[in-house]
Amino acid sequence: MEQNQPTPAQRRVISLLVENQNGVLARVSSLFCRKGFNIDSLTVSTTRDPAVSRITVTLRGSQREVEQLLLQTERLEVTRQIFELRPDNSLQRELLLLKVECDATNRSQLWELANMYKAKLLDMSPDSMVVELTGKPEKIDAFLTMFEGYTVLEMCRTGVTALERGGRHPHMQKPPQEVRAVQLKDIELTRHPAKGAPARPAADEAQP
Amino acid sequence: MKLNGSQIFVEVLAEQGVDTLFGYPGGAVLNLYDELYKNRDRIRHILTAHEQGAAHAADGYARATGRTGVVLATSGPGATNLVTGIATAYMDSIPLVAFTGNVGTALLGKDSFQEVYIEGITVPITKHNFTVRRVEDLADTMRAAFRIAQSGRKGPVLVDIPKDVTANVCEFTPKAPELIRTVTVYDEEKVLKAAELINTARRPIVCFGGGVRSAAGCQPLRDLVHKGDIPATYTLMGTGVLDYGEPHNLGMLGMHGCYAANKAVSEADLVIAAGMRFSDRVALKPEAFAPKAKIIQIDIDPSELGKNVPVDLSLAGDVSYVLQAILPHIEQRYHMLWTEQIEAWQKNDYHPKDSDTELRPHQIIEEICEQCGPDAVYVTDVGQHQMWAAQYLHHTQSRGFITSGGLGTMGFGYGAAIGAQVALGTDKRVVMLTGDGSFHMNLNEGCTAVSYGLPIITVIFNNQVLGMVRQWQTAFYGKRYSCTDPGRRTDFVKLAEGFGAKGYRCNTIAEFRAAFADARLQKGPSWIDCRIAKDEKVLPMIPGGGDINDIIME
User: Fold this and answer.
1) CATH class in words for B2-171
2) What is the topology classification, in CATH, of domain B361-531?
3) Which end of chain A is more exposed for a tag (fewer CB within 10 A), N or C?
4) Distance separating alpha carbons of residues B284 and B322, to the nearest angstrom
């Protein structure tokens, strides 16, 4: 449980499939707030199943903190599945809108910089420009450091949105009485059905 | 068949086997109460003086029986008055379903009269909660509430019902209640590993909590203790699970636990933690809890495993099933040296002295046990008397000790005692132990006990001060008694009589003996005002954040 301890600063991405109903975001964020989990970003989106929403959370925390977040969140009735998206088996993207002050003297420098990162120019005004960049969070961080010498007027990041690689992730209705298995690789809580307990549907063992 | 929301409400309650509910009427629940009136032969409604009392009563009902307690309140203030009761049940994992009325759906969100967003208010203190916006959803939502309250780690669920939903009509199909199954998932390998740890330990100890009672795991726990010859200690919530005559019973653990139990944990080489969560009143210094031991934790809630104290082996599942799985692998053992060592510590434990001239708490409690025998149910409020009760009540059944552990709700007792007495019938002896501080919070429920003829005996440990806080002020705040000496002149005898109950006052143990014997003959409630000294303390005591070396014995 304690091995493979990541450095506390490492960014972790959690994907959460929840019932798509009134107040579900309030329930999840209330839990994070009262348990003191420090969240970097949180995005909510629909899925192809209208009954299910996907919440993607990024946070920095130790293995222990992330385990607690997964286990506590799993206790919510609205949670269908929760799992960590590891960098090696998932795709993570974020979108940035950046408004930088510019004038005739540095406009071409900035334009070049944006091009280097394949950022899109969205707006050009006499005193400013707005660029759009999509990429991994690390790429966006790197891009932003390049603007340290310039005056950033405003910026907005969407937060991470992420999907696991390969196959379709089934959105199973969780059986009401079942103790749900958290998909955590290192966690000590690997469980097998006891005698007399209904077996979990195979499709629910989602991690490829 | 076509039914309106209120009829559906009653039908689903009946379908779920609910024959008693506690509550208080109001504008938003008038339709429900009208239907309850028509069905008063099927479902008994107990009217309390205050919604908080109703919530505690439903909680006490659940604690006394293991069944789901049900409480009903109106919108707005009715709903907010339930909050403390719901939070109390949540912290102690008690199955409770709270129904609240609300303004009609057209008025929701408009700051209407007696409107409050109770769903939002109770999110952090319920397992789950619902607002029913369509009558078509009412029946299944109620069924889900009962299922959630009883499944897995038990707890409270709230269902908010706007007024128009109770009047609207829809098709209703009766359904048999779902079987509540608590699915246990555990790893055979871990069971064997646990058994191996237990079989090879030289100084093992069992620490158990309220989870053992919730899981009906008392017998497997006793079997484990006997077969492995393992001494056992418990948290406040585990009080009563193990018989007091049992030689392996070391008494309570933690802040006001006994010396021997705390010492044994600090010296043990194996701790088997069953249905307990290492709260800060038990593991006062989590990093130094059982420093020489490996820890096995068994809990139904995976998020509790290793949450407060790191553990060496964790098993997620119903305590009863997990223990039954481990038991066949346990070898019959005798830990002679370990037992002798613990007995030596027990000789050095704190033993209070008797007195004939002034009332001492332990003597009062011994007298109560003496007169009530092993079958009585004891309910406490919160404070010094609660700790004395846990330490000295040596006659409780597994569901015979009802107390607010996690939340520590002063004012819990009288409502809970009413719930327990209603659940168990008036032939069963229910004794409520309280302090003058706690009792002042909810003694208004005295009128309820009188109305329903509930023969609850209330023993008031009256030291005229807020004793537990004062004890801390004595020990840690240089005897600056800030707001703990309220100078109240309440005459509990007259007050009891004012409610229509019987009142007694006593200053010596002989007077108490006579008063209690007379109270046992009463048909209705009685209050016994026991005058004890201001400076009575709960001992031993380990200060918060301390360990066995910091224990205060005098």
Assistant:
1) alpha beta
2) Rossmann fold (3.40.50)
3) C
4) 27
CATH number for A91-161 (one of 3.40.50.1110, 3.50.50.60, 3.30.70.1150, 3.40.50.2300): it is 3.30.70.1150
Inter-chain contacts counted by CB atoms under 8 A, chains A and B: 77
CATH 3.40.50.620 fits A11-85+167-199, yes or no: no
| Chain A environment of B316 (Cβ under 8 Å) | 179, 189, 191
- Contact assessment for residue B364 and residue B511, using Cβ atoms and an 8 Å cutoff: no
B130 is catalytic: no
CB contact under 8 A, A76 and B120: no
Closest Cβ–Cβ partner in A26, A76, A182 for B120: A26
| Sequential pLDDT tens for chain B (554 residues) | 999 999 999 999 999 999 999 999 999 999 999 999 999 999 999 999 999 999 999 999 999 999 999 999 999 999 999 999 999 999 999 999 999 999 999 999 999 999 999 999 999 999 999 999 999 999 999 999 999 999 889 999 999 999 999 999 999 999 998 777 676 777 889 999 999 999 999 999 999 999 999 988 999 999 999 999 999 999 999 999 998 888 999 999 999 999 999 999 999 999 999 999 999 999 999 999 999 999 999 999 988 998 999 999 999 888 998 999 999 999 999 999 999 999 999 999 999 999 999 999 999 999 999 999 889 999 999 999 999 999 999 988 899 999 999 999 999 999 999 999 999 999 999 999 999 999 999 999 999 999 999 999 999 999 999 999 999 999 999 999 999 999 999 999 999 999 999 999 999 999 999 999 999 999 999 999 999 999 999 999 999 999 999 999 98
A-chain residues near B185 (CB < 8 A): 179, 181, 191-194, 197
Q: What is the dihedral of CA A51, A57, A63, A66, to 10 degrees?
A: -50
Chain B interface includes A199 (CB < 8 A) = no
CB pair distance less than 8 Å for B183 and A76: no
Write the burial class of residue A33 (CB in 10 Å: 0-12 exposed, 13-18 middle, 19+ buried).
Answer: exposed
User: Which phi and psi angles does A190 have, rounded to 5°?
Assistant: -60, 130
This model's pTM is above 0.90: yes
